[in-house]
Design brief:
The protein is an alpha+beta fold and 269 residues long. It is 29% helix and 26% strand. The chain has eight helices and 13 strands.
Length: 269
Amino acid sequence: MAAITSHQRKYLIAGAAGVLVAGAAYAFASFSPAFGPIAGTIVPQLYVDTLPNAQIPVRGRYILVDAASARLYMIEDGHVQDSMRVIVGKPETPTPALKSVINYETLNPYWHVGADLAKSLIAPRVLKDGNTYLTDRGYEVVTGWGPDARVLSPDSVDWKAVAAGNAQVYVRQRPGPANSLGQFKFDLPDGDGIYLHDTPKKELFALDERNLSHGCVRLEDAQRLARWLLGKDPPAASVPEQNVLLPQPVPIRISYLDPDSQTRLASLR
């Protein structure tokens, strides 16, 4: 066998070192999928599969709300494109884990006050402050939630019976600066009354503990989400409750991720 020259030995050593480094990098990425997107060594399927509670698809757009950290993620093709803070349910009215889809966004929404709030909040305040409580806050009594609902006089309601739970009343808040849903609402057909919405109380997003709602998800920047879902700026609303169809439905999941999953999710950039 011919002797190996000094020149050949240098190339053999360099080649072996390259193989070792490449093998180590692959092994590190394989067993540390959270670093895969940063290193660029792992296909999306591998590190997406490390988040089973999130059920992130490898292709297409997807919204994930982690109620545990009160944060929303906008995901496309397995990568986080953007995120924002959210406000989720109080301990006594927690935001439920669910899976649904967003088909459209509503501009200038009415806030339809639920029966529980009408009983515990609206009726006692009307009994205390009179009809000015309603007019000052843009509330109106209506015949129902449908598009053909008629506005009724507050004097036609037995507010004592409503406060006692013996009568039902339909109350909605008109669109405007004080509207509790802000300028945008995102309905969830499988949400059982839970939806995403804007809010005029932006100062609450500076809090570390953001479990403050009655179950719905309040958005730090609803217009940014609306723009991402549409792929363009949303149109200027000309009427109340203007529904704008999305180019295609976007699946959404609300989940409670553990700290390890939150760390892995943060790496899906």
